[in-house]
Amino acid sequence: MEADDLTDFDQAISFLDNYGLFQIIIILLLSLTAAPVGFSSMTAVFVSDTPEFRCKVSLDSAENSSWVGDWVWDSRCSRDRDHANWTGDAGLSNGTEPCVDGWDFSSQTHTSTIVTEWGLVCENAWKVPFSTSLFFAGYLCGSFINGHLSDRFGRRPVLFTCLVIHGATALVQAISVSWIMFCILNWLKGVSQTYSVSIILGSELLPKSSRVTFSTIAISLGYCFGYMLLPLSAYFIRGWRMLLVISAILSFLQVPTCWVIPESPRWLLNKGRVDEAELVIRNAAKRNKVPAPEVIFRPAERCQTERKSDDKRTYNFIDLVSTTNIRNTTIFCCSIWMCITFVFYGLSLNTSNLNGNIYLNCFISAAIDSFAYVAIWVLVDRLPRPTLLSGTMMFSGATLLIMKLIPEDNTIVLQVLGLVGKIGVGGAFSIIFLFVTELMPTVVRNMGMGVGATSGFLGTMICPYILYTGVYMKILPFLIFGAACIVASLLSMLLPDTRYSKLPDLISEVKPIRW
Question: How does it sit in the membrane (predicted)?
Answer without folding.
Answer: Multi-pass membrane protein
